[in-house]
Write a structure and sequence with these properties.
The protein is an alpha/beta fold. The chain has five domains: 63 residues; 201 residues, Rossmann fold, CATH 3.40.50; 97 residues, Immunoglobulin-like; 256 residues, Class I glutamine amidotransferase (GATase) domain (Rossmann fold), CATH 3.40.50.880; 77 residues, Immunoglobulin-like. 29% of the residues lie in helices and 24% in strands. The strands form eight sheets. The chain has a seven-stranded mixed β-sheet, sandwiched between helices. A hairpin with a 6-residue loop joins strand 21 and strand 22. Helix 3 packs antiparallel against helix 20 and helix 4 runs antiparallel to helix 5.
Length: 765
């Protein structure tokens, strides 16, 4: 077919296509009334869904609020929105009562008085129903007071003590840092909520009132205090440290008093005794300071010393013609200053006759060298008796008893020595046992602990056999070997280190060894005959002989045994020391050992007088020996001294008691104290002094205190304490409020609202 015809046929259908495309559909118009109903339906459906949602949400909120109400929650409200009013505070007021708080300002008011005043101001700002405790710096425990009125009474008492301290010079309290009081405060606050009987946790406050002097803060306790503080649950205690000191203090103080050059507090009777006082000056000027010294009831002796400002100087006083016995001296500044507590110092010392010791020897001639050596040093006065001469003599009158070469202490059968010695040691006595030679000791029956009960209770070791070094040891094989046939030395002289000298008997030897060039080390004494001793279970070996190359095989030279339950002591030697057959070279007088050794033994037994102390800081526990008194005329003792009330003066003794301890509060005040009893010849005493640190009025750095109490807790001198600022930044400012009643009211309102809404939504029309 021709293409033209084909195209033409196709074009013929073009009008049909255009007709179909351009064809118009007929319009469908809804009935107007029906269209209005459809629009109304959509509006009503949206309103209904909104009402259902609101009612559903209201009912869900009602159930949730019901659950929260049953939980009875609390919230913390601030001071601006406090639904329950001011929350009570548990406040512990720690007042520094150390001696430095007796410092008086220009108006004559002491720091303790100022501390009581500032504490009273803080007390006035506390909310009603608060709990209050007043704790002194020296208190180890504390109690909550019944009311704030009781707290005010307590503060008034402290203020009166401050006034009395300024008037009399006696400190208001012992020298104790306030860190102890802070620890006590933490103890009280740790239990206050448990004692509140359901009234809710208290706001907790530790308020410290101190002069911030050097001795007022113990930095060593900081870590322990922080651990205790951090152990508190939230809210933790707030702190306020109120500085009641003065900015630029001036003071003249007696800082120390004692024996010149640190000598022992027991001196020989007869020679002059020198005491030294240290004087310090704090202030703008150099001063010439007068110092009075009063010995017992004698007239005051005055000396003057020039002291540059900020420095110290010493002044010495000499006392002559002192009789044997206890002597007490009072040093004082005749001119009063701002701090009266450090204007006086007390010293006690003893001018002593030689100490009595007893030697019991079968033959006094055997103990002639021993007696001469003991008396040579003038420290001891020895009396030598035979067992028969001893009779009923009271052993307790002697500082030490030496059993010297007695053949058989178990004889005679009707009056043996052992029971007397046992009673003496059990009463605190010191016994020294020096054996005799093999001829004197014989079969050693009187020393056999398996047969003699008293020997078993006293001896440190049992004598076994006698060793003669010439027979016991062989000739040395070469020149380097030790020749022990000529005798043996103590092993400490054969190259021992310092640890071998740890026993008190050997401690002086260590000092001489360190100085060098001492004859007893250059030429140590040798023993050619000694007893082999087997230590009993209670015995301790003090030193051994160098009689074997193996240290474990060496035999004891000196042994010791304490008597359980008493201060008694027994020292046992193993080599005879009599003047007959010489088993050692102790008595050749070619060496100082001749005098040194007996003194070492007796000092170790009876105690060195260098260790006796009569002077202590206030607040210390003082122990005094009473063994001689008990042995004489036992009975209760009487303590006399500053601050000792009549009810506290009696010191009761028990049977076999060898010492007494005087403890706080009887040692809280400085002064000279004496202890007397029924025996008129017996008297003990001691002196108490305020620690020298109490005169150091430089302030403790703020940083050191706030490391425990928190930043900004130190209130500087002259500034007031704002309770809200103290609690600022802590949850303790926000008072806990019980929400149960408020939630219950809201629950009832919400329940009523739900009913109204439901009735409105579902009511029939």
């Amino acid at each position: 077919m021709h293409p033209i015809l084909i195209v033409g046929a196709a074009l013929v259908g073009l009008p049909v296509l255009l007709h179909l495309i351009m064809k118009q559909e007929p319009k469908r118009l809804p009935f107007p009334a029906f269209r209005f109903l459809q629009q109304k339906l959509k509006t009503n459906q949206r309103k209904l869904r909104l009402r259902h949602f609101l009612l559903l949400a209201l009912r869900m909120l009602l159930i949730a609020l019901f659950a929260v109400t049953l939980y009875q929650p609390t919230v913390l409200s601030t001071g601006f929105v406090n639904l329950s009013g001011d929350q009570p505070v548990a406040a512990v007021l720690v007042v520094d009562t150390s001696p430095s708080m007796g410092y008086a300002d220009g108006e004559g008011k002491t720091r303790l008085e100022e501390a009581a005043r500032r504490a009273g101001e803080l007390l006035s700002s506390l909310p009603d129903n608060s709990r209050v405790a007043v704790v002194e710096s020296g208190d180890a425990t504390g109690n909550w007071l019944q009311s704030t009125a009781d707290a005010r009474t307590r503060l008034r008492e402290l203020a009166e003590r401050g006034k009395k301290a300024a008037a009399t010079g006696a400190p208001a309290g012992p020298s104790r840092p306030v860190t102890g009081g802070v620890g006590t405060a933490y103890q009280l606050l740790g239990t206050v909520d448990a004692e509140s009987e359901g009234s809710g946790p208290y706001q907790k406050l530790v308020a410290v009132f101190t002069d911030r002097a050097a001795a007022s803060w113990d930095a060593a306790r900081a870590d322990d205090l922080k651990k205790t503080r951090d152990a508190f649950p939230e809210p933790k205690p707030a702190h306020a440290v109120v500085d009641v000191g003065v900015e630029t203090p001036t003071n003249v103080a007696l800082l120390a008093a004692g024996m010149t050059e640190g000598k022992a507090q027991v001196v020989p009777a007869g020679p002059p005794v020198s005491l030294t006082v240290t004087v310090g000056v704090v202030g703008p000027d150099d001063l010439t300071v007068p110092v009075n010294a009063v010995l017992g009831d004698a007239k005051p002796v005055r000396k003057e010393v020039a002291v540059p400002r900020g420095q110290t100087r010493t002044v010495a006083f000499e006392f002559r013609d002192l009789k044997p016995g206890l002597h007490q001296v009072k040093f004082e500044l005749p001119t009063k200053d701002a701090l009266a507590a450090d204007n006086v110092r007390y010293v006690t010392f003893r001018a002593a006759e030689p100490r009595r010791v007893l030697t019991i020897a079968t033959d006094p001639e055997d103990a002639a060298f021993w007696n001469l050596a003991v008396n040579e040093g003038k420290e001891f006065a020895n009396e030598t008796l035979t067992p028969q001469q001893l009779g009923g003599k009271e052993l307790a009158a002697f500082e030490a008893v030496t059993l010297f070469g007695v053949a058989n202490p178990a004889e005679p059968a009707d009056d043996p020595l052992w029971p007397k010695l046992l009673r003496y040691v059990e009463g605190g006595g010191k016994l020294l046992i020096i054996p005799g030679g093999p001829e004197r000791m014989g079969d050693r029956a009187g020393y056999d602990p398996t047969k003699v009960e008293a020997a078993n209770k006293l001896l440190p070791g049992a004598f076994k056999r006698f060793i003669d070094t010439a027979e016991e040891f062989e000739e040395p094989k070469d020149a380097k070997s030790k020749n022990r046939r000529r005798g043996v030395t103590w092993d400490i002289f054969a190259g021992a280190d310092d640890r071998a000298f740890s026993h008190p008997l050997l401690a002086p030897l260590r000092q001489w060894r360190q100085t060098g060039n001492v004859d007893i080390f250059r030429a140590p004494r040798r023993t050619s005959g000694y007893w082999e001793v087997e230590p009993l279970p209670e015995g301790v070996v003090v030193v051994r002989y160098d009689d074997a190359d193996d240290p474990k095989a060496r035999r004891p030279a000196v042994l010791e045994r304490g008597r359980g339950g008493s201060k008694g002591k027994v020292i046992q030697l193993t080599s005879p020391m009599d003047t007959g057959t010489l088993f050692n070279d102790y008595w050749d007088y070619q060496n100082s050992w001749t005098v040194v050794f007996p003194a070492l033994l007796l000092r170790s037994a009876a105690g060195s007088r260098d260790d006796e102390r009569f002077n202590f800081d206030t607040g210390a526990s003082v122990r005094l020996p009473v063994g001689k008194l008990v042995a004489g005329r036992p009975g209760n003792l009487v303590l006399d001294g500053p601050g000792v009330a009549v009810s506290e003066a009696a010191v009761k003794l028990t049977e076999k008691q060898v010492d007494v301890t005087i403890a706080p509060p009887r040692t809280n005040l400085p002064g000279n104290f004496s202890l007397t009893g029924p025996n008129p010849d017996w008297r003990e005493g001691f002196s108490l002094n305020v620690p020298a640190d109490e005169s150091t009025l430089d302030k403790v750095p703020v940083e050191g205190i706030e490391d425990v109490t928190g930043a900004g807790s130190v209130v500087q001198v002259g500034r007031d304490v704002d309770l809200k600022k103290v609690f600022e930044g802590t949850d303790t400012l926000r008072a806990p409020v019980e929400l149960f009643p408020w939630l219950l009211i809201l629950l009832l309102l919400l329940l009523a609202a739900e009913g109204l809404v439901a009735n409105r939504f579902y009511r029939r029309k």
